[in-house]
User: What shape does this take?
Amino acid sequence: MRRVFWILAGWGISFCAFAQEAGHEGADSAERPLVWMWANFIILALVLGYLIRKSGGAFYRSRQEAIQNGISEAAKLKQDADARARGIEQRLAGLEQEIERMKASAKAEFAAEGKRIERETAQVLERLQTQTAQEIAAATKHAREELKSFAAGLTLDLAESRIRVEMTPEVDHRLVESFTHELAGRGGAGEATA
Assistant: This one.
């Protein structure tokens, strides 16, 4: 391309020099440089048009192909982006449903957990009531036994003090005689039966 430019530049310079020489020759020569300039311009335009068509066509075709490829890639990218956007929208719609399902599940689990805690609390309270009733019954029984033991001790103490008050040496002697007679009577009856 550079070579062609330098050829055309040299040809234009030589033509201008030729036109100037021809312009100095006379009146007839005033029309000649104008004709030659137009002829030179037409030739130059034809040569430039040919060169532009020859090398420019390939350039414009490659540029057109690059633009077409860019457009098709952009269309593919847009389709991919649209598909991704639809997928994200579907996931978001599904996500809202999933959140609602999880909320309902959590409410059901909380309700079930509350009922389980209520049952366990009722069982613990029942066990505590049973255990407390048993402890109260055991404490009551123990208190009654202690009370009976205390009452028996008091009764014995009272009886002992009465006996001491009422026991005179005569009563004591009569009791001992009565007891020995009774033993002697039993001893004789025991020998008779043997």
